[in-house]
Amino acid sequence: MEQRNTATSARPIRCKAAVSKAxxxxxxxxxxxxxxPRAHEVRVKILCTSLCHTxxxxxxxxxxxxxxPSILGHEAVGVVESVGDHVEEVAVGDTVVPVFLxxxxxxxxxxxxxxxxCSTLPPAxxxxxxxxxxxxxxxxxxxxxxxxxxxxxxxVEYTVVDVAHVVKVGGALPLExxxxxxxxxxxxxxxxxxxxxxxxxxxxxxxGLGTVGLAVAQGSKMRxxxxxxxxxxxxxxxxxxxxxxxxxxx
Length: 250
What we know:
Strand 1 (13-19) and strand 2 form a beta hairpin. The protein contains six helices and eleven strands. The protein is globular, with a radius of gyration of 19 Å. The strands form three sheets. It has a five-stranded antiparallel sheet. A four-stranded antiparallel sheet has the order 1-2-6-7, with no helix packed on it. It has a two-stranded parallel sheet with strand order 10-11. Helix 4 (184-195) packs across helix 5. The chain is of the alpha+beta class.
């Protein structure tokens, strides 16, 4: 029988989180309490998370109406620990990647090949869960609410994410690479595949060979580009790339 740790059987979990308490100030390690998932939500044990420049951007913002304390982070991979009511897409034990853009699968935009912006759960810079605006985090010592970050919050050992914001992936993927699928890789591949619509046999120039730039190169290769030119001011990037190609990695 399939294991199913539901919201009715799940209990709050206390764990460590890197908490942002003020713009531009160092994150502080705190014990937080993570509530069980509600309907259409899953609680995920974070196995690996990475740092995206978007995290730095929001962390530095002083004029933005952010709410503190909050838990940043949105590039991650983890394992489903428990599920709320009406969750059928994933089960306990599944390896998942949380994503900040929802995919309800039913609205006109999700069903269209020309859009990736869900109209049922549109992206927002709010600090709560997508369906009710509340948070599942609180400081263990005081009970003070800790706010969510763009529907993910991955700088924590356990997080709660709407099921429309998770994608099931194969467990064999290396964790340090799987977490990049959350943002950097999907952004770069999507830029080549959807936005630029790179044509087979074309020549592509990629400016900046970070995570997104390398993903653009990969997406261009997948689209059939004949020649891909990488441009970057950091010579170390070319040493890394040369090593990858000598070992047969794309």
